[in-house]
Structures are given as C-alpha cells and as structure tokens.
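G.,

No rush on this.
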Amino acid sequence: MRRVEHVMGFPVSLRTDEHLPDEAADAVFAWLREVDARFSPFKPDSEVSRLDRGEIGLGEVSADLAEILDLCEEYRVATGGAFDVRLPGRGLDPCAVVKGWSVQRAAELLTAAGARSFCLNAGGDVVAAGGPWRVGVRHPEQADKLCTVLEITDGAVATSALYERGAHILDGRTGAPAAGLLSLTVAADSLTEADTTATAAFAMGTEGIEWAATRPGCEVFAIDASRRVFRTAGLPVAANRTAA
C-alpha cells in the first residue's frame, strides 16, 4: 500500500509492503484530520484556540491536550526557555509538539491494526517499523542532494531546518529567529521525541547540538551556519546513500 494525503498543512505518506486493510489506513488519516481540527492554533474553533482565548481553562482541557501541554513545558524547562510555545505577543502554538506526537500515535494505530512493516512520512519527518528503512536527510542548501542517509528499523527521524519555511523557529529566550544552525536531525525511538528534540535544539542554536546529543536515546546529525558537520557516534548511517 502507498497512500498520500495532505493533512495539517503538509503531505503525509504511508507505505507498507504487506497487506493492510483499507480501514487501517483510513483510521490513520482520520486521526490526523481530527488532530488538526482539535489542536491547530489557526482554526478559531479548535481546543487550542479556545484555551488561548480563555474560553476554557487548563483544568477543562482534554487529556490529549493536557499531555501535549505537559510536553511543551518539559521542553521549555529543559532548554532554559529557548523552546517556548507561548512567546510574548503571539498566541499559544503547540504545533512543534503536536506534529510528532500525533504521527507517533498514528503509527501506534497501525501497529494495533496488525501492521508490522511500514513507513509513515509526515512532511519529511518519519516513523517506521519492521525495517530496515532508509531515510534521506536533505542537504540544507541544495534541494536536489542528500547530506546523509539513515537506516531505521523501528524508530523515527525528524529534521528542523530553514529550507522549507525560512526562519520560522524562534529562540524563546530572545524572541528572535533561531541562529547558528542550518539543519539538525534527530533519530530516536519515537517521533514525539525526535521531532520535539530537533525543534527545541534548533531553537537553542549551536548549543542545541550537544543538548540534543545528551537526550536519552537520541542520535544527532547537524550542520551549523559555518557549514561544519556534527554527528553522534551512534547515528544509524546507512551502508549506502540510497533513500527509500
């Protein structure tokens, strides 16, 4: 099965080489559409928007949103405020956590439906099972080239960079666009951890490389603004550079 839908503002693709009932794939994309409706800060009737306007209180939010907000606070504290979903002058925006969290949940729906080998790609961030799956990491300055290829059996890969959306990641300590890095990729057991760690580390600038590398279970590949390349010893680099 290969299926692609546009959800949450980016393409999401599901690939599996085993038989998977259509209902299982339907549940994945239905869940992601539900997440977009409930937690998008760009939808005025979402739970996030209603919380931000004060129409509901923290004690009234759903268990899912409470979990998301707890993760946001965990990373805010861990980064000394560099990662912050409540920047001054801006509304509540937990998208940096919601994406990885929701796609990881989608992968768990697939596993619960009996899928053992699949690759779920959400706008370039990947969670995979039953590999090996080869995941290409795009060169931050040359769109037609890869700077490395990782090999994932059961786990996730996420990259934060400037090439898709420009300087959209802000350093919560200053309110200014994050500086010092061109891209930072994290491989971890879950996309919740990989995606949020990559975004949080990017917000920290060059100090985020070492910070991400010390996170339990995280392996890091990064390119700084001086074009220097950093990689942790356990990074699962593929034997060849052909990406799936």
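When you get to it, here's the other one too:
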Amino acid sequence: MATTTRAHSFNRAAAQYAASRPSYPPALFDTVEELMGRSLAGARVADVGAGTGIATALLRERGAEVVAVEPGDGMATQFRTALPGVPIVRGDGDALPLATASFDLITYAQAWHWTDTARSVPEALRVLRPGGALALWWNIAATDVPWISAQSERIAHHCGVTPPPPTTRTDDRGAARLAGLEGLRLARRQVRWSRTVSLDLHLSNISSHSAFLVLGEPGTRAFLAEERTHLHDVFPDGEVEESYEVDLLVVRR
C-alpha cells in the first residue's frame, strides 16, 4: 500500500514534475544504442511509465517511433499537453496493453522500481521482438559530491527514509535494481552528467519526489525553507550545479 501511494503521488504534482525534473544526456542514448546493437532511428519503442514524457521526447528526437504507456491520470494529462502527437495508452508494466512481439525496445525511465518484477519481466519479454531489448535507467544524485551527500542525509532524516549509499562506479551499487533480471543477458553502464539550474528550480525538483509528495505540504514547506538557507551558503549566486550518474541496465532478448 505504501508503494502504491507513493507511485500515485506524482499525479497531483505532474506539472511540477514536468517543469523541474532533470532530463537525460545524449551519451545515455548513445549507450543504449550500443548495448541494443542498433540505432534508435526507425526503432519501434514502448516507453513504459512515461510520466510527463521527458524520456519519450528524447527518444523521438533520436528518430524512434514511440508509444507511451502511463497509468496515472495527472501524468498522462501532462504528457498529452507536452506531446500531443505521440500515442499514449493507459496501463502499467505489470500488464502491458501491447501486442506480443511488437516492439524493438522497451524503456523504463525512473519507473522500473514501481513494478512487480515477477510480472513485469515476463511482460517485457513477451512484447519484445526477437533480438529486442529492455532498457531501464535512473538519474541518481551523485552523492560523492559533498553538498549533495549532505543534502541527501538531510532529506533522509526529514522524510524518514534510508539515505542513499555513496555514489560509486562499482556494480554492487543499487543491487536492488537487478532484482528479477537474474539469468538474463544483462549489461550495465553508468553515465555521468550535470546541469545548472536556479535555486528555486532545484528545490522544486527535490520536492517533486515521492518522499515529499506523501509527506504533505506543511512538512515539505518547512524543509525547503531550511534547505534554501543551507544551499545559499554553497551557491551564493543562486545557481545550483546538480550532478547525476545515470544507472543504465539493458537486457537483450
């Protein structure tokens, strides 16, 4: 129930999510192409848990023919506003509303952890064409950067969650993401990147995460006021450099 509540919490903050969440670097899609063994141009792609369409838009820019799958009302509404010409079907990864052997690539951007892998893995393999691939990725805050590590500790304390482990480039990081994929043809890469945003946008970004959305406005507002003071000491010009490492997993069928 707690996982379901957190998964659906994004629907009431879909516009905030679309405006503030980080995108993904071109190197990520270069690596996806390398690991799937073909160009995205002309590939038939299902972007599952597409949310507001951040990854969908980038896949289309690479020439892919994309169909989005999204369960949430709020997120789907925001998606249609941003990408009115892209087909979107309602559903989730545990029961894909897609034909068998109909896609070259299935992608999950920031979404695989909301699935039941006992169901989502067989579903992905069912929908993929022979030689197709499943690509899963997450933007992970680079906690080897001191200010990000300190912020992560403050967030964990305030929201009552487990702080993330230090960011490393070893394969034991984020082992939970590998659950359900044992025995499959799996490749894993990390792609480092960063973006510079205003302090306001950074605070909007972190408060769009489910830990804050389920916490409620009063608790979130109090945290953001304190966090603004912490970050102003680090970034007195009001420009925050966010650093990420995209954790990418690709499974070949």
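The longest strand covers residues 128-141. Residues 2-141+166-194+244-252 form a domain with the Rossmann fold fold (CATH 3.40.50.150).

Enjoy the weekend,
O.
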